[in-house]
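re: the backbone from monday

yeah here it is again, tokenized this time
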């Protein structure tokens, strides 16, 4: 690696760190639900209580979120144990991860595209990509996931394209396992790395790599299977294992769950991509943008099929998982956003390179298509910078979370148990044990549920399971469910207060 390229990587890293630090905010943790859960689990590990949901009555063992990110946060917790002051340290970690990710993406592009210019461009774009910055501003696992993911891809591409190395193979296996322990979707790395090695008949490398991955993953799988079924059914969907949640949905809906999920996730994904890459708004512009993106991704994939087979296979496997998962796909896509842009950069290089054989008409059409999406994405980034969109989720949700915390402190006792749409934040800032308002199932994403169904399948079982003192709601869906229970002939709840972003109900019977 020459000094010039090292200097470029250093500049990319500094830019990423500056941007990451500049967008650190002081909004409450818990605005995205998962961010509060990561902090709760980190506190549990750091204070010697094990891997437990401290917010739930009885502090049951955790099996929903993989332990990688909470374990890293727990190290920072030991250094900065005062909450919420230590949130700055947690968010600073994400800033560091952004800087490292930008350097790694630049290196991946430089090696696979064999171009310092394209590598530098990929690194710089990573540092300013608002979809990624949205996640960097919150205490979420995606920034760390991107670091371990891209490191795995760089090393795996070297292994696949180079000579046999048992030490490298087992290191990649361990790293792939770590990546999966940060975010479960990282499991797509294992077949993505193993398949090219199998095609090349590198049996020893495959066995060594898989062994390394299993060393990291088997303990977690044993942990989740050992502690399956320990949670009360009303909160099993919110806090149980991912696989159990998906299987319960499939058991309830049958094969139609898969078709309904694909209908929703494909539609939502296309709408998101069209909004981010269209130069102007409107159905025609969005349609053109999707066609242009399809062409760009196709050319990029063809260009990378031999130079970056692991990366392409990972993206394909990851996409399958996202599309089959009955949940809004945006967060999953944003978490590996730089890799999608990398494929488009590969397309740009192929179209602009005279050494690449391509019909003149296709080259012109492809160049226009890439220009279209490039202008569209630049316009999106400009709008996002003006509106500080990286803080939009936290800014909007903080207006709901803050009043709920204040009400809980003012109207409940330390030993009370409350139900809340933001139970993680309520626990962290008030110390009250808190459970979710609704039982989370696949139906929440796939179908509209009436207030009666929401109440009877969500709130009523919770009221039967826990001695709740109050119910705090922060969405129209949960408010309507609570209001139904407050207005039926034999009410279970009573509306106590309404505040910005939500309302508080007290429990009449238990």
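seq for it, each position gets an aa:
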């Amino acid at each position: 690696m020459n000094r010039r390229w090292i200097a470029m990587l250093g500049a990319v890293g500094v830019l990423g760190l500056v941007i990451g630090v500049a967008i650190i905010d002081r909004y409450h943790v818990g605005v995205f639900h998962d961010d509060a859960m990561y902090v709760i689990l980190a506190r549990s590990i750091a204070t010697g209580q094990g891997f437990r949901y401290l917010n739930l009555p009885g502090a049951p063992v955790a099996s929903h979120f993989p332990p990688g990110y909470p374990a890293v946060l727990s190290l920072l917790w030991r250094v900065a144990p005062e909450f919420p002051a230590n949130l700055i340290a947690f968010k600073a970690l994400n800033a560091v991860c952004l800087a490292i990710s930008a350097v790694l993406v630049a290196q991946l592009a430089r090696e696979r595209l064999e171009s310092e210019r394209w590598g530098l461009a990929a690194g710089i774009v990573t540092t300013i990509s608002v979809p990624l910055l949205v996640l960097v501003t919150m205490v979420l696992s995606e920034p760390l996931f991107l670091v371990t993911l891209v490191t795995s891809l760089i090393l795996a591409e070297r292994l696949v394209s180079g000579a046999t190395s048992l030490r490298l193979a087992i290191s990649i296996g361990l790293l792939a396992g770590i990546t999966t322990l940060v975010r479960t979707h990282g499991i797509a790395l294992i077949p993505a790395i193993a398949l090219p090695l199998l095609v090349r008949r590198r049996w020893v490398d495959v066995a060594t790599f898989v062994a390394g991955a299993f060393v990291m993953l088997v303990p977690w799988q044993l942990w989740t299977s050992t502690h399956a079924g320990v949670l009360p059914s009303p909160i099993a969907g919110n806090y149980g294992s991912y696989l159990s949640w998906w299987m319960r949905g499939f058991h309830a809906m049958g094969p139609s769950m898969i078709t309904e999920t694909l209908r929703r996730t494909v539609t939502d994904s296309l709408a998101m991509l069209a909004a981010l890459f269209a130069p102007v708004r409107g159905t025609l512009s969005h349609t053109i943008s999707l066609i242009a993106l399809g062409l760009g991704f196709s050319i990029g994939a063809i260009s990378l099929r031999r130079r970056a087979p692991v990366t392409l296979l990972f993206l394909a496997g990851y996409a399958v998982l996202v599309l089959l998962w009955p949940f809004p796909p945006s967060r999953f896509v944003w978490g590996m956003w730089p890799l999608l842009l990398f494929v488009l950069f590969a397309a740009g290089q192929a179209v602009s390179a005279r050494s690449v054989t391509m019909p003149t008409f296709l080259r012109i059409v492809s160049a226009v298509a890439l220009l279209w999406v490039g202008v569209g994405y630049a316009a999106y980034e400009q709008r996002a910078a003006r509106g500080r969109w990286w803080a939009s989720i936290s800014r909007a949700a903080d207006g709901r979370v803050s009043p709920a915390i204040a009400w809980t402190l003012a109207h409940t006792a330390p030993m009370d148990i409350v139900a809340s749409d933001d139970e993680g934040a309520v626990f962290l800032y008030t110390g009250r044990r808190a459970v979710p308002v609704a039982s989370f199932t696949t139906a929440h994403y796939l179908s509209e549920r009436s207030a009666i169904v929401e109440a009877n399948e969500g709130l009523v079982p919770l009221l039967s399971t826990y001695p709740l003192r109050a119910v705090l709601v922060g969405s129209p869906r949960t408010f309507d469910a609570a209001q139904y229970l407050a207005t039926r002939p034999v009410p279970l709840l009573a509306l106590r207060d309404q505040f910005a972003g939500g309302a508080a109900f007290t429990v009449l019977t238990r």
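The chain has 23 helices and five strands. The chain has a mean pLDDT of 94.
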